[in-house]
Specification:
This protein is α/β, with parallel strands linked by helices. About 35% of the residues lie in helices and about 20% in strands. The chain contains 8 helices and 9 strands. The chain has helices at about 15-25, 75-80, 80-85, 100-105, 125, 155-165, 165-175, 185-195; strands at about 1-5, 30-35, 40-45, 50, 55, 65, 95-100, 140, 145. Strands 5-2-1-6-7-9-8 form a 7-stranded mixed beta sheet, with helices on both faces. The protein has a two-stranded antiparallel sheet with strand order 3-4. The protein is globular and about 45 Å long. The two termini are about 30 Å apart.
Length: about 200
């Protein structure tokens, strides 16, 4: 089970690195994340240069695709050639987006009538796409999820791990990285965010 953590130039380190680091604690269980980039090297919003582990075309074979945010996301969605490389299929893939990554999902037509979560600065641009923005850190419907706020990347990772390996696996991962003395509340917060962000089945 492979996860493409889509990382564009100008990316937010917290989005890409937290999600990939948490998911990669499940390598022994067959779940592995890869920083996936449109060019061999991308530079973060704070000047950190990162060599991509997989090219953008990897998104077509990955079972899960997570799209991070960054200071150049509006340029990304305006680039037809770049957007055309994101061939995603929610019927067979889990697809998540962090903060301004919701703009990418909107540009790809994947949100339709689904509300989304995003960060404060990206909110007006997401709403301009006709998407309702929730005052919540996480929301998922079916195979599509969005998270709002840099540290909500832990919720995207929790969602992925829970969907692919079960809640116990997610508890183990979040519990391991939780601050000492805050293990239980950190685990429960992550699971509560994911469960409350998923509408109950009829």
């Amino acid at each position: 089970m492979q996860v493409a953590v889509v990382t564009f130039d100008g990316f937010n380190e917290l989005d890409s690195f937290i999600a990939s680091a948490l998911i990669n604690r499940c390598r022994r269980d067959g779940l592995e994340a890869f920083i996936t980039t449109p060019t061999p090297v991308v530079t973060s919003m704070n000047g950190v240069e990162v060599t991509g582990q997989r090219p953008m075309e990897f998104v077509t074979e990955a079972e899960i695709v997570l799209i991070g945010s960054g200071v150049k996301t509006r340029d990304v969605v305006a680039d037809d050639r770049l957007i055309s490389r994101l061939r995603l299929d929610p019927s067979r893939q889990l697809i998540g987006a962090q903060c301004s990554g919701a703009l990418v999902l909107a540009r790809l037509g994947l949100l339709e009538s689904m509300p989304a979560c995003t960060d404060i600065k990206s909110r007006p641009f997401v709403e301009a796409c006709g998407v309702t923005v929730l005052d919540a850190p996480f929301h998922a419907e079916g195979n599509i999820a969005t998270a709002g706020g840099c540290l909500a990347s832990q919720y995207l990772a929790t969602w992925v791990i829970t969907r692919m390996l079960g809640e116990d696996a997610a508890r183990d991962v979040i519990g391991y990285v939780a601050p000492v003395g805050e293990t239980q509340e950190t685990v429960e917060r992550a699971l509560r965010a994911v469960h409350s962000g998923e509408p109950a089945l009829p």
